[in-house]
Amino acid sequence: xxxxxxxxxxxxxxxxxxxxxxxxxxxxxxxxxxxxxxxxxxxxxxxxxxxxxxxxxxxxxxxxxxxxxxxxxxxxxxxxxxxxxxxx
Length: 88
Hints:
flat; Ald_DH_C; Acyl-CoA reductase-like NAD-dependent aldehyde dehydrogenase; Aldehyde_DH_dom
């Protein structure tokens, strides 16, 4: 298992599904709001880098189980993304 920003990469299927379910329940929002469980990235550069890195990993054959890159609105937010890396 490895993390890249709010992105978690896992291999075992059962663990991956439980992880997706847990990540889907998280609330993304400003860090000062009590209901927020996932805050913003530090800046837009970091958000673009995260999007690029996930894209590169997916281009190598990794499956996206939960895609958090499609958040709309202002700020540097990215919802949790879960990637499934096939065992070699």
